[in-house]
Amino acid sequence: MDFDRCSSLTKFPMISWNLRTLNLCKTAIEEVPDSTIESLNKLVSLNISNNRKLKNLPTSMRHFMTSLRSLSLNGCSNITEFPHISGKITKLFLCETAIEEVPSFVERLTNLKNLRLDYYKRLNRVSSGVFQLEYLETLSLSLSSWMPKS
Fold first, then answer.
1. Which InterPro entries does this one have (predicted)?
2. Consecutive sets of 10 residues in the chain, 150 residues long: mean pLDDT of each?
3. Could you tell me the residue ranges of all domains in the chain?
4. Does the chain have fewer CB atoms within 10 Å around its N or its C terminus?
C-alpha cells in the first residue's frame, strides 16, 4: 500500500492485517499506535522516510512485527531512539534521525545485512555489538552532512 507524499496524512491508517508492504514516505504521521502494530504481523517492508513529525516507534514492534525485513526511517528528524525491532530484520535505514546511540541490543539483530546511519548530527556512541553481526554486509556511518559546493 502506498501513501507516498500524502503530506496531509497525520494519523496512521487502518490497514489490512495481511499487508506486506507499506510506504508512508513524506507523510505527517505523528505516532504509530500499539493497536495498529499488533495487526501488522505480516508486514515485510515499512518505509516512513522523510517524516518530520513522527516521534519514536513503539517498543512493541519487535513482538508483533516479526515478519519485518526492511525498515526505513531516513529523514525522520524527531526519532531519538534506536527502534526496537525483530531480529529478522535485514535492512535498517536510519539516516538523518536524532538518534544519539546505537545500543548494545543491536547484536540481537542477527540477520541484519545493511545498516545505514548516514548524516547523523547527534550520534555519539555506537555499540561494539554492531561489529559482531555475522551477516552484516554494509555499515554506513557518515557523521557529517553533505554540503554542496558554492
1. Leu-rich_rpt, LRR_dom_sf
2. 72 77 92 83 93 90 90 94 91 92 90 88 83 91 56
3. 1-9+23-43+54-67+80-89
4. C
Q: Quick one: pLDDT at residue 131?
A: 87
Give the count of beta carbons closer than 10 Å to the beta carbon of residue 78: 13
What residue type is assigned to position 28 of the chain?
Answer: A
- Overall size of the chain counted in residues: 150
| Per-position b or e across 21-39, b if 16+ CB within 10 A of its CB | ebbbbbbebeebeeebbeb
Helix (H, G, I), strand (E, B) or coil at 101: strand
pLDDT at 25: 93
- The most distant pair of C-alpha atoms in the chain lies apart, rounded to whole Å, by 49
Cα dihedral sign, 26-28-31-34: negative
